[in-house]
Structure formats: structure tokens, C-alpha cells
Write a structure and sequence with these properties.
Elements: E1 3-11, E2 14-21, E3 26-27, E4 33-37, E5 44-48, E6 51-57, H1 60-67
Antiparallel strand pairs: 1-2, 1-6, 3-4, 4-5
């Protein structure tokens, strides 16, 4: 699976600007911010201040779609009910 990172700059408790990066943002040497390459412009961005970084994995939707895949053709009256999604590999953080 491929990871995508969303870097958000905050101002006054609201998201002021968001960037998307395919590579993990790297902390700056002085620890005041991060450096990353923007997907939109392919330019290096150095960002300091109030920021947050979120990581998303692509492919999750495809996995869930395959889990609920219906093998019967459309129009079939005896279509089975999809099984319940079992998430036994998820552990609570708190």
C-alpha cells in the first residue's frame, strides 16, 4: 500500500492551507517545522509554525470492496447478504 501525507498549516484554530505529499515530511534541523515535496507543484516546501501531519494509506477502499465483492450477476434473486466486516486486528489506542 502507498502512503500519502497531508500537511496542514493552522491559524486561529482553523486550517489555513493544506498540502499533499507522497513522501514523509522531514523535520527541519532546528525542530521548528518540516520540509516536504508538494504533490501539486513538485516543489520543496519548508513549513514552520502550527502544523499537523496526517498519513493516509491508499488501497484501503479496494480491500474493503474486495471483501464485500458479490460473485452473483446483477438481477439474481438469490444474492447472498454480505458477511460482517471482522476487524480483529485493530487495537484501541487508549
Amino acid at each position: 500500500m502507498k502512503s500519502t501525507f497531508v500537511v496542514t498549516m493552522w491559524s486561529g484554530g482553523r486550517a489555513a492551507k493544506k498540502w499533499k505529499s507522497e513522501e514523509r515530511p522531514v523535520p527541519l534541523a532546528d525542530g521548528s517545522g518540516v520540509e516536504f515535496i508538494s504533490c501539486a507543484t513538485r516543489l520543496k516546501v519548508q513549513l514552520i509554525g502550527n502544523i499537523s501531519i496526517e498519513e493516509y494509506e491508499s488501497g484501503k477502499e479496494e480491500i474493503e470492496m474486495a471483501f464485500f465483492h458479490d460473485s452473483n450477476p446483477k438481477g439474481s434473486d438469490d444474492a447472498p447478504v454480505p458477511p460482517k466486516l471482522v476487524r480483529d486486528n485493530i487495537q484501541p489506542l487508549f
